[in-house]
Amino acid sequence: xxxxxxxxxxxxxxxxxxxxxxxxxxxxxxxxxxxxxxxxxxxxxxxxxxxxxxxxxxxxxxxxxxxxxxxxxxxxxxxxxxxxxxxxxxxxxxxxxxxxxxxxxxxxxxxxxxxxxxxxxxxxxxxxxxxxxxxxxxxxxxxxxxxxxxxxxxxxxxxxxxxxxxxxxxxxxxxxxxxxxxxxxxxxxxxxxxxxxxxxxxxxxx
Length: 206
Prior knowledge:
The protein is α/β, with parallel strands linked by helices and 206 residues long. It contains seven helices and eleven strands.
């Protein structure tokens, strides 16, 4: 798996199967904070569903902003193993160590943080989740490369596991993505423009 250093000096990887990087090359860590964690208005005690956990940057950003409980969905065992080989800035290391433990043991818990990772196809693993979330990070590969995780059916499965008024953040503003979110009961709006001209998407469950 090819390691790529993005413009903010944080590392990501290129997935050979999908021929895409796991993050924006304009800045992987910047994307995690600005497109995912910050728009969700996280507060202590919130429950967050991180779909397509990858190398854990979105979760890392969330843990840096609040003491939250994370459930992460990830299908690729290889990308979880790469977490051990990643260095982050000094101010992020303490929380990333928690993610490194979770990547190995599929869970981590202390008095402030809980992380549970579920391996497998997100379309299947999400159906086994009974709890409700305050925020969702939706971060699959692009709709062109990974259409199965952007369907109306999958959006409805996500919505069923969100509290009313909960926020979903995703980097994509593709028309089909927004249409499918609306069909699942979300109010859809523009998120921040980071690293590209087009905005990301913020969706609130009605």
